[in-house]
């Protein structure tokens, strides 16, 4: 299961950073991390955000 990390941590043979997408962990481990709040499913993490243009600056 591919997950997107919300927190960074490391072990003896790995290191993950916040915002990193990985499928390094087994499904059971990935589910535990999601339930604990350390990660979200990678599909859920891809949310498009609309950006509003700033209003033109008025001086004078």
What does this protein structure show overall?
With 60 residues, the protein is of the alpha+beta class. It has one domain. It is 23% helix and 20% strand. The protein is built from two helices and five strands. The chain has helices at 27-36, 42-45, and strands spanning 3-5, 9-10, 15-16, 21-22, 39-41. It has a three-stranded antiparallel sheet. Strands 2-3 form a two-stranded antiparallel sheet. A hairpin with a 4-residue loop joins strand 2 (9-10) and strand 3. The model has no long low-confidence stretch (mean pLDDT 86).
Write the layout of secondary structure elements.
Layout: E1 3-5, E2 9-10, E3 15-16, E4 21-22, H1 27-36, E5 39-41, H2 42-45
Antiparallel strand pairs: 1-4, 1-5, 2-3
Count of individual beta strands:
5
Fraction of residues in β-strands: 15-25%
User: What count of structural domains?
Assistant: 1
Strand arrangement across the biggest beta sheet: 4-1-5
What is the CA-atom radius of gyration, in angstroms?
A: 18 Å
Q: Could you give the order of the helices and strands?
A: EEEEHEH
Bulk shape = elongated
Catalogue the unreliable spans.
Answer: none
End-to-end Cα distance: 57 Å
Query: Helical residue percent?
Result: 10-25%
User: If helices are DSSP runs of H or I spanning 4 or more residues, what is the number of helices?
Assistant: 2
The averaged pLDDT comes out at: 86
Structural class: alpha+beta
